Amino acid sequence: MIVKKVIASFILLFIITGCDSKTNIDSSEKNISVANEKQENKEKVLIKEEKKQEPIREEITFTLETIDGKTIHIREIENGLEFKEFKGKAIFLVLFGHRCPPCLREIPELIELTKEHKDLAIVAMEVQGLDGDMLSEFAKDRGINYSVISGDGNMDFIGYIQAKAGWSGSIPFLLGLDKKGQVQIMQIGGIPKRQLEIGYKELIK
Q1: How many domains does the chain have?
Q2: What is the pLDDT of residue 25?
Q3: Cβ count near 116 (within 10 Å)
Q4: Domain match, 48 and 83 both
Q5: What is the CATH number of the domain that holds 140?
Q6: 10 Å Cβ neighbour count for 40?
Q7: Burial (Cβ within 10 Å: 0-12, 13-18, ≥19) of residue 85
């Protein structure tokens, strides 16, 4: 809260008697000056106290490791997420499962998008229980060319997505972030490549 400076208005009534009016005015001006100075000092103290009372917002960050040993650093920003390693790129963050038919159908489309658009990063997290080794085999068999992360050991990030995006657990689940990290797309269910292309174009505007 910003404390606004209040300047008091004084109305001085002088009754001319035998006293020197200039002396009275000088004395009154000194009193006004002292009063104003005290008010300013009081307001400065209040401002300092209010600044001290402001809560310090704890920064929310995540460090995720892909199946090929790369590290992705994520930081919460207003209305989105900043992916340090993919700064300046549009991002599709996908939660998927290895036993989910629409998720499996979407994989070839995500592979094609990765080949076609160098300013798009796809980060996919498997949430149906595959550990790192099993997920590596899965990704190799499918020819996946984008970043893949096991949900195993990353429940803090999954819980964060659940809380922030209202994700109920249905997959595939996609968040589209523009080049500034702002969330612009939220989609539950498989998306045809044509719709993914439209979403990509919206993110790079």
Answers
A1: 2
A2: 39
A3: 11
A4: no
A5: 3.40.30.10
A6: 12
A7: middle
Three-state SS annotation for the chain: CCCCCCCCCCCCCCCCCCCCHHHHHHHHHHHHHHHHHHHHHHHHHHHHHHHHHCCCCCCCEEEEECCCCCEEEEEEECCEEEEHHHCCCEEEEEEECCCCHHHHHHHHHHHHHHHHCCCEEEEEEECCCCCHHHHHHHHHHHCCCCEEEECCCCHHHHHHHHHHHCCCCCCCEEEEECCCCEEEEEEECCCCHHHHHHHHHHHCC
Instruction: Give the residue numbers spanning the domain of 32.
Output: 1-54
pLDDT tens digits in sequence order for the chain, 205 residues long: 333 333 333 333 333 333 333 434 354 454 545 455 555 555 555 555 555 555 666 899 999 999 999 999 999 999 999 999 999 999 999 999 999 999 999 999 999 999 999 999 999 999 999 999 999 999 999 999 999 999 999 999 999 999 999 999 999 999 999 999 999 999 999 999 999 999 999 999 8
Q: Which neighbouring-strand residues pair with 30? A: none
70 and 37 in a single domain? The answer is no
Q: Are residues 101 and 190 in the same domain?
A: yes
189 lies in the same domain as 92: yes
| Beta pairing, strands 183-188 & 173-177 | antiparallel
Whether residues 84 and 12 share a domain: the answer is no
